[in-house]
């Protein structure tokens, strides 16, 4: 599908109300391979796109990876898929995209579900937190792509293990993302998300969230559950925080637990 000027690849299962599953870094649409069919079986049309720059999705002609651009991608997917509204489930950079999408066009989002990333309104820097997110600096370096390639992409494994410290990461867990970032320019594009970070949240994320929202917080993640509570005043609609065992990749660490919790969230009347 083509949306926001970029040709996107995606995985799709099921039929019914549209649910978008949006991945982050270092990851791909395959991060949802356990979640996608389970949600589809519950009566939804589930689409997991490869975000801009992640092969087989195209690399944009110009450097445009800020969160509001990612949010416009989400809104473009809804339109390209022939729908007017969607439930959006975003992990990591997918969560940032979802926060922007709901700020840009709340009428297009039925339910906002974010995983592993609190709303920026709740983040209060501490030394511990700054150390935990030090990759925000290292991945912005002009030589970051070369450095990661020179290490044969082992840094991607290191990041997954660091962000989910109690997970025994299965062999081959990062094979899909390594393949996706292998084509020329793809790794540079994925790191462009970090280069686009500003000290101030983008305009869309400075608006109150007006749609029903649920945030999944991993008990072993870099962001403690308390940060999600600090953001509560930014929400004007319902806002629930679901704590989960595991770290940043909680949906991969404990898929059965995550799927059960997500299906309960989707089934809750609003």
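^ structure tokens above, recovered residues below v
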């Amino acid at each position: 599908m083509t949306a926001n000027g970029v040709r996107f690849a995606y995985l799709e299962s099921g039929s019914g109300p549209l649910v978008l599953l949006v991945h982050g870094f270092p990851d791909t649409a395959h991060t949802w391979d356990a979640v996608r069919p389970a949600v589809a079986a519950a009566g939804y049309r589930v689409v997991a796109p490869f975000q801009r720059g992640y092969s087989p999705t195209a690399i944009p002609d110009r450097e445009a990876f800020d969160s509001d651009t990612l949010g416009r991608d989400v809104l473009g997917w809804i339109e390209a898929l022939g729908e007017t509204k969607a439930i959006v489930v975003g992990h990591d950079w997918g969560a940032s995209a979802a926060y922007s999408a709901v700020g840009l066009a709340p009428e297009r989002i039925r339910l906002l579900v974010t995983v592993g990333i609190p709303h920026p309104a709740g983040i209060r820097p501490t030394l511990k937190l700054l150390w935990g997110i030090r990759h925000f600096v290292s991945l912005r370096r002009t030589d970051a792509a070369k450095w990661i390639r020179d290490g044969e992409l082992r840094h991607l494994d290191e990041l997954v293990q660091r962000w989910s410290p109690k997970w025994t990461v299965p062999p081959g867990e990062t094979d899909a993302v390594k393949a996706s970032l292998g084509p020329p320019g793809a790794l540079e594009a994925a790191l462009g998300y970090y280069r686009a970070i500003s000290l101030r949240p983008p305009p869309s994320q400075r608006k109150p969230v007006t749609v029903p929202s649920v945030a999944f917080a991993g008990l072993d993640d870099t962001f403690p559950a308390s940060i999600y509570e600090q953001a509560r005043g930014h929400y004007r609609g319902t806002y629930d925080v679901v704590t989960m065992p595991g770290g940043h990749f909680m949906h991969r660490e404990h898929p059965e637990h995550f799927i059960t919790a997500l299906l309960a969230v989707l089934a809750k009347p609003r």
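The chain is about 35% helix and 15% strand.
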